[in-house]
């Protein structure tokens, strides 16, 4: 397949504006400003069916349409807080095609009539943040950002803003709290950021990859974009694949590609027999090997199989892996990252980790599995934001599909593998 | 103990003055600049804390946070509250090199725990501790977005990927010489 999203990745000096422009960059921005009104772009992105690529899969154009008419100023926020375990696709775009991202943000900001675009990038991506900052400087110098862009009269300022280590700041309202200079606590929705976001002003928050797709849609049209993927999951997606595969990495594929094609034809096949696969980042339920044969990488099929496409962060878990240990480690992650605001998540993630830790360390009891599931019920749908539900993904699915491993740990006081 | 800030103190870098690290005038000016870039000044708090931490030996003491609070025109309690939320803000001293090994799922699947054990032996410290010479602090951290090149670690600003025990030795031995 011809590389589109990844077309500049691997090209020498791809992050430099001269290389980017030489390879056709910023033409989509010029076209958008010259030939289209903001509302046209919103309609185009809606028609393309582009869905949020951060994990939630909400249609981007629909989100943009929620902006209340006549209310200004508006802000655009690029969510570059990539923190979902197993996900590293945004990092590739940030480091190796920062101008592609800037162009996507600029067109989207124009469509949403935003006057400032913030790129909220996780603090650990210092290298990428540096590349983005230099690219933003270059874009200003050449007139792609700032006052009167390309003579259109449109003005956009862009700021790179670093986070400081908090997975929860990938959740849009927690990100906005952090951007305002506070602890990263999520906020109640409604009101949604589109009506009341950062500084209580209308704000659109979109993932890096989502925004990155926009120039392609503007340049070649919504119908062209719909030519890829499936009816309800149109377009191209970047899949991060890691774990027990021979060629881990980021691969660009149309949505609807079979999972086993990604694993075998792109990622070099499994490095040991597969026990389970997490399809879309650690928060998505794991699927045992026998569910993979007919699985295609799109939102609907994976949902029907009992999991989620999420961020498309595929983690392949080999047969020699102790599932209990793997889930214990993930439970530790969610407990660490819980913001502490609400009781179900704050207390629940702590208890889940404690019980899983006991089971993994030969002190499990027969009733522990029911206790774990009971705690899960206490979190599910009851936490203030999706982090609580996310913590349940690996726990419930592993008990459903690998109960025998847990029971072995509890009864034999040791690992099955 | 009340944090003490000398408004007349001039230096191009942070200095050790009477036991308290004092933010340089340059840093304070930079923070003021940052405040003006945002529609609301408090948004500059995280950038200000990053700046202060870089200037002040990689950690944020109460005294340094008090100085940030003053420049930001925020209560000290707010600054401490915000700093305490984020993993990257160190509120205890750290070594010259902060060695952060990811042990989340993909890295664990590829042997991150062996890397941690090796580092503990090599440095002679437990996770969370600093070597007596003040060079290395060892931490286990959450997913750094480098799962495709696991196992890996971040030391200060730099990612070191596709680690083996040998590479770890080379990296640390090289840093120890610098």
Distance between the termini of chain B: 37 Å
What's the overall average pLDDT of chain A, rounded?
Answer: 98
Strand content of chain A: 5-15%
Strand order of the largest sheet of chain A: 6-5-9-7-8
CATH superfamily of the largest domain in chain A: NADH-ubiquinone oxidoreductase 51kDa subunit
In the CATH scheme, the class of the largest domain in chain B would be: Alpha Beta
Structure notes:
- The complex is a heterodimer of chains A (417) and B (178).
- Chain A has 16 helices and nine strands.
- By secondary structure, chain A is an alpha/beta fold.
- Chain A has three domains: 210 residues, Rossmann fold (3-Layer(aba) Sandwich); 83 residues, Ubiquitin-like (UB roll), CATH 3.10.20.600; 90 residues, Up-down Bundle (de novo design (two linked rop proteins)).
- In chain A, strands 6-5-9-7-8 form a five-stranded mixed β-sheet, sandwiched between helices.
- The longest helix of chain A has 27 residues.
- The two termini of chain A are 39 Å apart.
- The mean pLDDT of chain A is 98.
- Chain B is an alpha+beta fold.
- Chain B is built from seven helices and six strands; from the N terminus they run ββααααβααβββα.
- In chain B, helix 2 crosses helix 3.
- Chain B is elongated and about 50 Å long.
Task: Summarize the structure in short.
The complex is a heterodimer of chains A (417) and B (178). By secondary structure, chain A is of the alpha/beta class. Chain A has 16 helices and nine strands.
Descriptors:
heterodimer; A: 417 residues; alpha/beta; Rossmann fold; Ubiquitin-like (UB roll); de novo design (two linked rop proteins); 3 domains; five-stranded mixed sheet; four-stranded parallel sheet; 16 helices; 9 strands; 44% helix; B: 178 residues; alpha+beta; Arc Repressor Mutant, subunit A; Glutaredoxin; 2 domains; four-stranded mixed sheet; two-stranded antiparallel sheet; 7 helices; 41% helix; disordered N terminus
